[in-house]
TrEMBL record:
Transmembrane region(s): 16-35, 41-62, 100-120, 140-158
Cell membrane is among the record's keywords: yes
Pfam families cross-referenced by the UniProt entry: Ni_hydr_CYTB
Subcellular location: Cell membrane
Main location class: membrane
Record-given protein name: Cytochrome B
Cellular component terms per the entry's GO annotation: plasma membrane
Domain Cytochrome b561 bacterial/Ni-hydrogenase: 12-173
Membrane topology recorded in Swiss-Prot or TrEMBL: Multi-pass membrane protein
Gene Ontology BP annotations: respiratory electron transport chain
GO MF: electron transfer activity; heme binding
Xref: InterPro entries: Cyt_b561_bac/Ni-Hgenase, Di-haem_cyt_TM, Hydrogenase_cytochrome
Species lineage: Bacteria, Pseudomonadati, Pseudomonadota, Betaproteobacteria, Rhodocyclales
Top-level taxon in the UniProt lineage: Bacteria
Organism: Parazoarcus communis
Length: 184
């Protein structure tokens, strides 16, 4: 039995999506690991991250095909089908986000907005020095980092399962899927 390989490439991630993604990664890493909490720079980077997410939400409605939420919104049916394929070891290729990736993306977006809001609230007189708000903000940050690590690990694992370099695609904008078809 010999194997033949065929590659299919599709331009998926537009320049805005890629710039948004890597800019947000940089904001999150900088704020969590480099800048001390409460510093003015920490606040401004948090506001930038929130602005990036708001811009991405707008782009999710008006952007290119694979950037639109309508292209990948993770409905219960889509999630069940995708999980079933993954569990059974069957490829479940999607040009854009797969349903689990979409769910993760939306969760990460919500967390960044929650961080932005809870961080901003800490600057208001009404919430100044409120320990519960500081703890909530820190918890959101820790959850975001944990889910971001899971997101990166899942991208690596799904790249192997689907035969697509997802990280390379987030750099180049092009998904190249290597299909291996068995021949007798």
């Amino acid at each position: 039995m010999t194997r033949s390989e065929s590659n299919t490439s599709i331009r998926v991630w537009d320049r805005f999506v890629r710039l948004f993604h890597w800019s947000l990664v940089l904001c999150v890493i900088t704020n969590y690991f480099v800048i001390d909490d409460g510093e003015t720079l920490h606040q401004w980077i948090g506001y930038l991250a929130s602005a990036l997410v708001l811009a991405r939400i707008v782009w999710g409605f008006i952007g290119t095909r694979y950037a639109r939420f309508s292209d990948f919104f993770p409905t219960p049916t889509r999630l069940r089908q995708h999980i079933s394929h993954v569990i059974s070891g069957q490829p479940d290729p999607h040009p854009g986000h797969n349903p689990m990736g979409a769910l993760m993306m939306l969760t990460l977006i919500a967390l960044v907005l929650a961080l932005g809001l809870s961080g901003f609230m800490q600057t208001l007189d009404a919430f100044w020095g409120e320990e519960w708000l500081q703890e909530l903000h820190e918890a959101f940050g820790s959850i975001l980092i944990g889910l971001a690590v899971l997101h990166a690990a899942a991208a690596i694992i799904m790249s192997r399962i689907d035969g697509t370099n997802l990280i390379g695609a987030m750099i180049s904008g092009v998904k190249t899927r290597t299909g291996k078809a068995a021949r007798s």
